[in-house]
Amino acid sequence: MGNAPTDLTDISDLQAVYTALNRVQAIIEFELDGTVINANQNFLDLFGYELAEIVGKSHSIFCRPDYAASAEYAEFWQKLGSGDYFCKEFKRVTKGGGEVWLRASYNPVFDADGKPIKVVKFATNITAEKRTSAKFDSIVKALDRSQAVCEFGLDGIITDANSLFLNLMGYEKSEVVGQHHRIFCSPSYVESPEYDEFWHKLRQGKAFTGEFKRVSKDGYEVWLQASYNPVYNEDGEIVQVLKFATDITQEVQNRSLAMLEMSTPVAKIWDGVLFAPIVGIVDSRRSGDIMNKALASIVDYRAHTLMLDISGVAVVDTAVANHLIKIAKAAVLMGCNTIISGISPAIAQTITELGIELGSVQTTSTIESALREAIRN
Question: Tens digits of per-residue pLDDT, 186-201?
Answer without folding.
Answer: 999 999 999 999 999 9
